[in-house]
Structure formats: structure tokens, C-alpha cells
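ugh ok fine here u go
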Amino acid sequence: MSAVLAVSLGCPCGIGPEVALGAAVLERRRVRAVLGGDPAVIEGVRAAAPGARLVAVADAAGCRALAPGSIGVWSAAARLPAPPRPGRPDAAAGAAQLAWIDAALDLVGAGACDALVTGPVSKAAIASSGVRGAARFRGHTEHIAARLGVPSVVMAFASPGLGRRKGRFATALVTTHLPLARVPRAVTRDKVAEATVALARLCRRLGVARPAIAVTGVNPHAGEDGLLGTEEARVVAPGIALARARLGRARLEVELAGPLGAETAYRLAHAGRFHGVVAMYHDQATIACKLAGFGELVNVTLGLPIVRTSVDHGTGYDLAGTGRASPDGMRAALRMAAELAAPRRRG
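structure:
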């Protein structure tokens, strides 16, 4: 049977509900999606997905019993007190999107669904919603890790077709949503090794038998032999050595190169020289990735006990309510979640 995926809608004032429903309809032969969000919000975007066959589900058995081609709607999802206003999130919208993440995550944790796929949220709307603990929200990656009690995870992005088509590559981040001033201290030898090993394992799970991975430096030109910084020699190079040792103990054949200047590493990955790049901080990775493949990259959280994927774009408030949002990014996220969950289902 096809994978059952829990899909949180994202911000109800953005394009998340529209692309989630649209992608679920387009991928209904490959996956069975359970949409976690206000049923009224889903009905509000139904015109953008003609032919959607929606089925209310209230428990784990209902998720598993979904017939091929059907799309589940989680009936226990939090409701909004009023219809959402496109492009104008308020406290209620912030509270709802956080509740929808948690509800979808609980479905996976309970075994009702095989993987979690998350729609785009507004960090600011969640943080200012007034919900207890929400002020600390900085992103899906950190929130899901905290809820599952995982001390350390790795944010990654991967292209569909990795290893099969030129220009397709994956990337992992040593640090995630941090102010740039805090990055140098947050980059440690262990974190470099953790991100490198996690990326190597992801590449192998996506079909690359012997991944080639470049590791960037922190500074421009990877420090220029110490002229522009010393983090490469003090931290990154020892992290690469530690990763190489861990991969060797796991008997995983991986080619590692670095520290390299980020501009060089991503140029060579896009040219097909590397299957993956380990970046030191958020924008070092995401600017290059979104220029190379915006709308088709998939955000993957590595190191969790579950499979979690997401779109690579934001809430799209300028497109909300227009019916013009593309579901392609969400389609890619659904497909990759199903692919990564397949070994778990077989096991």
C-alpha cells in the first residue's frame, strides 16, 4: 500500500492550505495524505483542487483505512474562530498553525501515519500568538526536535533525482536559524562531523552508492590559509577528520573534500562534481540552493526518529487567495517523504 503522510497546512493566511490540497490531489496515486488543519480552511481552497475526494478521519485506524485516491482531513484539528484573511496573519492564525504542526506530528508518533510533511508557517505569527511557549519558536526543525526530545538534529535540503541528473544535489547545515553573529561559536568539530555523516546517509538513502561531499569553510575563500579567519583549521578540518573516522567505522564509502570556499563548493555541486555540500550556516546554503532549484528542493530534518520533509518556500502571502500558487514544491516534499519512509514501512 502507498505511504500515509500527515500534512500540516502551514499558515492559513498563506498558500500552505492551497498547495497542500493541490499536491495531495496530484499525488493521490502515490501517497495517501491526511491533512492536519481546520476543515473549513480546506473547504475554502477546494476550488483550486477540483476532483478532491475528502474523507474525515478521527483516529489512527481511519488514517490507515484511507482508500487509494482519497485525501484524509483530520477532524480533531484546531479550528479558527473566523475565516482567515489572505496575507494577514493574526494571533489566532499563529496559534492554529502551531497546533496543526503538533497534531500532525502526534499522528506520526502514534503510528497512524508513516511520515510528516509540513506546510510553510510564519515564525513571527506563531511567536506572537500568545500560546504558552510559542515565543521561543524559531522554526519547524527546532520545534519538532524539542517535542520529540532529540538533542541535536540536522537541517538538510535535497533535490529530487539526486545522483541521477546533473545539477541535482543535497546540502546539510551545521547551524540553523541563528543570528549571524552567533554562528562562529556554534560551529564545532562535533557539529561539522554530525552534519557531514547525516548528509552522507541521506545521499545513500536517496540512491547514491558512494556520495561525494564537499564541506565549506566559515569564512570567505575558506579562510584563505588563515588570512581571513582560522575556523577552517581549528574547527572545520578536524570536524571533517572526525566525520571520516565515523563513516569508516560504519563502513560507508564516502568521498569528502574541504574545507572549500562556499562559492566553489556549490558551483562544483551544481556542475555535478559533488552529490552534497555541508554548509556552516543558513544563508550560505539556502541562497545557493534556491538559485539552483527553487520550488523543487525538499527540506529534510535528519536525526529524528521519524521522517519529516517540507517545502523549500515560505508562506507566499502575496499569492494567498489568488489560486495561482504552484503545488510543485509540496508535491516534491510528499514524494520524498514517501521514499524515505519506505524502508521503515518494509521494516
